[in-house]
């Protein structure tokens, strides 16, 4: 009989462990691990029959012991009788399992009530419809069962127990075997937590009352008497022997807070036999015993603590739990970013090198068998050598498919977002707890079909572990950004991690870990800098690693990863920093309009040996971040905008000596709140707001001239010098919900253009992308990163578009490739960091990198150790710093407001690539082309100011449209053609440029319109 069973099992299933777990087990997990009152978990079990039936859709007739049509005797797993002693034997296994896998941190006690009783209906009436997520029938079954128990045992003290299990007659609807029609009405095995029961009975549910209402049962596990069942085949009736030990271990783990780690939408495996909460593990060795919980499961439940490394280079050894001493590393944590990391463990099936010893009970008798290797009758899918109820195993990891280093990719973002819905591993491409399969084939849980059409489910194998002699064809004994699998983050970013040179299998295995690639190398990583939300950060001077961090209002100064000083209530705005006279300074300012003395200027200094700080109050309110500029006499002044419409100017030396009297005050406009100040060669630039809260308007002040903007807000402005040497102030303006760019020169508006989308833009940045004599405006918007020239034309090869993410508004720029053109560094909501070549518009090799979290403080570039470095403070106050350039080159936009002095200014662009030809025909084109809807931009370059005439003709020579424009010399210019009323076809656009001096030229381009 058993040989027939094994034969059928092999040819139809591959192995039972490869089967799906139908539905879900932990229906609605807790969102964090359960905290027990003690280290002992007490289980109460009851035995429940149904009303007798003859339902072909269920196994048995609803009574214990009715699932077998013949007497199989005691040589099978789960032999009859299924009575109190039988279920106690199963719970004895659970007790032994958790004592060992928790390292004695959890003790399981149990009690089975002696009487068997029946509920009022047949099994079908308590069974959810096939493929249904409505667990109300199981809730009703639980409610009725505990109500009956309460009546039968009115004096029994239920309050002594933590976990409540209903053992019911029949099998579980948990696995699919050959011949299944998918319409079975057996009860699915589930754990119903208090959250699950609230979903069934409503949020006011607080438990099933027992003990006269003095105690309420708030959880229930529903477990069958066995998973063994008969199958009718052409050769007769075959008994599939599948027991419930794995289910019971999953029940306890679910109660403690572990979610399911298989795909709960399909039931397919996700982690194979490498942890506990997966169908392949629950039914490993035909359900006799699962492997030990994975590293993540143990850490989550508080049974293990990993050794965490910081970025660096390491030669490491990992020891199995069974062979470890106190000082040995058993689980290693390798951070990827603030939300992702690798957990690495050494898993050996037979750490004691003495085979697998199994203890099992048949009736009242206990037997022990030892198997020196996998053999016929003792494999994960073949347990013919076992009988009765298995109650203990010397090493549960014998259930693993192989031995070696096991690498887990953990994503806390996914876990946090999906745990309440029990969907941590439903996306096979983005799992919260994922096995990095060393064989290079992500096949755990995948469906495959044999040449005979039979479906086989991929399961973890010994090839998925990392060890030197792994024979997989794709195995390279190296795990890095180019390997398969790769060490990229779940957002596709380069983790900069390489793990390699794994030794052969042993209780102590060695390997190496390194961070960084040929260019990008971690400099610092330190965590949880403050409980306050991060706001600002700044560097103090070139070629050192002293940083100022602002959390809330407080300043924290770090030298590398060491906190050297702090000042409370230091600033509401981004501080400025400067080194002058051998002293490093940080200056901040607070503003509270409700106070009689609304503002306070604070300063901090470091002379190389000592730190000092001070402050003074002001009779007026400061409404801007401070700004520092150099005077003609080579001294420094600190500028502040006020709520009185003035710019207050302080001498740096006088201010840091505590002198509260401004050196000078310049009135911009009465009844105005200044919002930002800047300067260039003695010319002051400022923005301000005036008017009522409902009708706010703005102004821009440039060197004594004021331009007013009605019903408009100016969130930011920046300054630069164009190719003709003119000071250009670029304003980010918002009128209603529409944002636009306004360019001002010599007190006049010279150009304006609308920005894409109605986004909440807040800052601007500038960069020398092309070395063509003019700087470019960098603006991130949703999933696109735009670069505009000062005429409003989009830079060649821009915008850059990303998928499944959005840019967050932070932008930096520097020449990190050493080619004199700047690269743009942009940041996303998911924590990815892109570096884009300014010339090609392509992402630089090695990027994106990742912090795993959005940055709330604007990031910075700084010079250190002969290289350009990037510093990022994420939303959880973890600080990252990387070298991102092999050399020290030019910084264009290194912090919020351009630099540590908040200048909001970028000097003249390099002009080595400036085009001198008047009207180069190669620079004339349109985009998009073809044009599918809306508009197309006709683009052209002129070296001198020119009048533009564009005649658009169809192929018959008929004039379709005529456009006239004025082009600014030295720029790519654009003229927009609206094609909404244009029919599909190919059109010729003749572009003619003419200067006032009589110079002219023309070119004809083709434009395709497709509708």
General description of the model:
The protein has nine helices and 64 strands. The longest helix is centred in the N-terminal third of the chain and has 18 residues, at 84-101. Strand 46 and strand 47 form a beta hairpin. Helix content is 9%, strand content 38%. It is mostly beta strands and 1011 residues long. Residues 1-18 have low confidence and may be disordered.
Strand order of the largest sheet: 2-1-3-7-4
Count the beta strands.
64
Helicity range: under 10%
Question: Strand pairing plus helix content: what structural class?
Answer: mainly beta
Shape: elongated
Secondary structure layout plus pairing:
Layout (H helix, E strand, L loop, with lengths): L1 H12 L26 E10 L34 H18 L5 E12 L17 H17 L10 E6 L21 E3 L1 H8 L6 E3 L4 E3 L2 E5 L4 E5 L2 E5 L4 H12 L22 H4 L12 H6 L6 E2 L4 E7 L11 E5 L4 E8 L8 E7 L2 E7 L17 E5 L10 E8 H7 L14 E3 L11 E3 L5 E3 L20 E2 L17 E4 L7 E8 L5 E6 L7 E6 L6 E6 L2 E6 L2 E6 L8 E5 L2 E9 L7 E8 L4 E8 L8 E4 L5 E6 L4 E6 H4 L8 E4 L5 E8 L2 E8 L6 E6 L2 E5 L3 E9 L5 E9 L2 E8 L2 E7 L10 E3 L8 E6 L2 E5 L11 E2 L5 E8 L8 E6 L3 E6 L11 E2 L9 E5 L2 E7 L5 E5 L7 E3 L11 E2 L18 E3 L7 E8 L3 E9 L4 E9 L3 E8 L6 E10 L5 E10 L2
Parallel strand pairs: 1-2, 1-3, 3-7, 10-12, 41-57
Antiparallel strand pairs: 4-7, 5-6, 8-9, 11-23, 12-13, 13-17, 14-15, 14-16, 17-18, 19-20, 21-22, 22-23, 24-55, 25-26, 26-27, 27-28, 29-30, 30-31, 31-32, 33-34, 34-35, 35-36, 37-38, 38-39, 39-40, 41-42, 42-43, 43-44, 45-46, 46-47, 47-48, 49-50, 49-56, 50-51, 51-52, 53-54, 54-55, 58-59, 59-62, 60-61, ...
Helix pairs in contact: 2-5
């Amino acid at each position: 009989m058993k040989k027939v069973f094994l034969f059928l099992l092999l040819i139809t299933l591959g192995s039972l462990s490869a089967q799906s777990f139908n539905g879900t087990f932990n229906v609605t997990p807790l969102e964090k691990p359960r905290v027990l009152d003690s280290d002992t978990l007490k289980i109460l079990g009851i035995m429940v029959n149904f009303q007798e039936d003859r339902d072909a859709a269920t196994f048995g007739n609803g009574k214990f012991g009715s699932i077998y049509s013949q007497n199989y005797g005691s040589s099978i797993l789960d032999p009859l009788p299924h009575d109190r002693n039988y279920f106690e034997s199963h719970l004895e296994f659970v007790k032994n399992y958790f004592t060992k896998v928790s390292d004695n941190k959890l003790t399981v006690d149990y009690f089975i009530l002696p009487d068997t009783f029946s509920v009022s209906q047949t099994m079908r009436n308590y069974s959810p419809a096939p493929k249904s997520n409505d667990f109300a029938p199981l809730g009703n079954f639980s409610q009725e069962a505990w109500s009956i128990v309460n009546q039968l045992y009115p004096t029994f003290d239920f309050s002594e127990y933590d976990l409540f299990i209903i053992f019911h007659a029949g099998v579980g609807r948990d696995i699919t075997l050959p011949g299944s029609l998918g319409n079975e009405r057996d009860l699915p095995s589930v754990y119903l937590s208090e959250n699950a029961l609230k979903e069934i009975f409503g949020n006011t549910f607080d438990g099933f009352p027992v003990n006269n209402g003095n105690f309420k049962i708030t959880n229930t596990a529903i477990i069958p008497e066995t998973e063994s069942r008969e199958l009718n085949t052409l050769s007769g009736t075959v008994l599939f022997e599948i027991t419930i030990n794995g289910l019971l271990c999953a029940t306890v783990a679910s109660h403690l807070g572990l979610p399911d780690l298989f795909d709960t939408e399909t039931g397919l495996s996700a982690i194979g036999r490498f942890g506990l909460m997966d169908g392949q593990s629950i039914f490993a060795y035909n359900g006799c015993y699962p492997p030990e919980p994975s590293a993540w499961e143990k850490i989550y439940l508080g049974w293990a603590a990993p050794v965490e490394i910081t970025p660096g280079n390491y030669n490491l050894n990992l020891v199995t739990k069974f062979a470890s001493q106190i000082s040995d590393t058993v689980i290693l944590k390798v951070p990827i970013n603030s939300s992702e990391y690798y957990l690495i463990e050494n898993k050996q099936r037979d750490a004691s090198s003495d085979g697998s010893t199994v203890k099992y009970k048949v009736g009242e008798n206990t037997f022990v068998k030892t198997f020196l290797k996998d053999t016929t009758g003792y494999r994960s899918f073949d347990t013919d050598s076992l009988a009765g109820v298995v109650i203990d195993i010397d090493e549960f990891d014998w259930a693993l498919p192989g031995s070696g280093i096991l690498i887990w990719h953990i994503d806390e973002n996914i876990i946090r977002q999906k745990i309440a819905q029990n969907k941590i591993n439903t996306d096979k491409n983005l799992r919260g707890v994922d096995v990095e399969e060393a064989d290079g084939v992500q096949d755990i849980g995948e469906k495959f079909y044999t040449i005979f059409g039979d479906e086989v489910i991929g399961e973890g194998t010994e090839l998925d572990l990392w060890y030197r002699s792994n024979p997989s064809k794709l195995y390279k004994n190296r795990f890095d950004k180019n390997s398969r699998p790769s060490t990229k983050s779940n957002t596709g970013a380069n983790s900069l991690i390489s793990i390699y040179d794994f030794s052969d299998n042993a209780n102590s295995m060695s390997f190496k870990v390194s961070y960084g690639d040929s260019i990008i190398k971690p400099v610092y990583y330190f965590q949880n800098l403050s409980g306050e939300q991060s706001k600002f950060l700044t560097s103090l001077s070139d070629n050192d690693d002293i940083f100022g961090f602002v959390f809330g209002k407080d300043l924290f100064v770090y030298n590398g990863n060491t906190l050297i000083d702090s000042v409370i209530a230091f600033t509401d705005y981004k501080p400025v920093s400067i080194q002058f006279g051998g002293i490093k300074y940080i200056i901040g300012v607070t503003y509270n309009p409700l106070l009689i003395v609304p503002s306070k200027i604070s300063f901090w200094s470091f002379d190389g040996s000592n730190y000092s700080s001070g402050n003074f109050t002001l009779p007026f309110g400061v409404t801007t971040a401070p700004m520092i500029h150099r005077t003609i006499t080579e001294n420094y002044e600190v500028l502040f905008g006020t709520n009185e419409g003035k710019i207050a100017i302080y001498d740096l030396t006088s201010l840091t000596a505590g002198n509260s009297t401004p050196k000078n005050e310049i009135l911009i406009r009465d009844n105005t709140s200044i919002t930002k100040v800047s300067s260039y060669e003695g010319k002051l630039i400022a923005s301000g707001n005036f008017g009522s809260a409902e009708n706010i308007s703005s102004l821009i002040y440039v060197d004594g001239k004021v331009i007013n903007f009605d019903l408009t807000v100016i969130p930011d402005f920046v300054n630069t010098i164009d190719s003709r040497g003119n000071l250009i102030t670029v304003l980010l303006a918002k009128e209603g919900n529409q944002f636009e760019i306004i360019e001002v020169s010599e007190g006049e508006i010279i150009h304006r253009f609308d920005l894409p989308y109605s986004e909440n833009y807040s800052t601007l940045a500038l960069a020398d992308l092309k070395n063509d004599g003019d700087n470019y405006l960098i603006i991130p918007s949703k999933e696109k990163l735009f670069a505009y020239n000062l005429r409003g034309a989009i830079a060649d090869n821009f915008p850059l578009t990303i998928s499944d993410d959005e840019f967050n508004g932070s932008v930096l720029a520097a020449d990190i490739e050493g080619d004199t053109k700047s690269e743009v560094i942009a940041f996303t909501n998911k924590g990815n960091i892109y570096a884009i070549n300014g010339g090609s518009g392509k992402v630089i090799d090695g990027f994106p990198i990742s912090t795993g979290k959005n940055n709330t403080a604007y990031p910075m570039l700084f010079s250190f150790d002969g290289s350009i470095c990037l510093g990022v403070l994420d939303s959880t106050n973890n600080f990252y710093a990387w070298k991102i350039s092999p050399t020290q080159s030019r910084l264009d936009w290194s912090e919020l407001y351009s630099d540590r002095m908040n200048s909001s200014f970028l000097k003249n662009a390099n002009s080595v690539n400036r085009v001198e030809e008047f009207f180069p025909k190669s620079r004339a084109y349109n985009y998009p082309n073809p044009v599918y809807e809306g508009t197309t931009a006709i683009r052209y370059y002129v070296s001198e100011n020119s009048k533009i005439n564009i005649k658009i003709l169809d192929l018959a020579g008929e004039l379709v449209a005529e456009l006239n424009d004025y082009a600014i010399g030295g720029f790519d210019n654009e003229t927009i053609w609206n094609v909404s009323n244009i029919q599909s076809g190919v059109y010729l656009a003749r572009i003619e440029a003419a200067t006032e001096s009589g110079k002219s030229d023309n070119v004809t381009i083709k434009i395709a319109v497709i509708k």
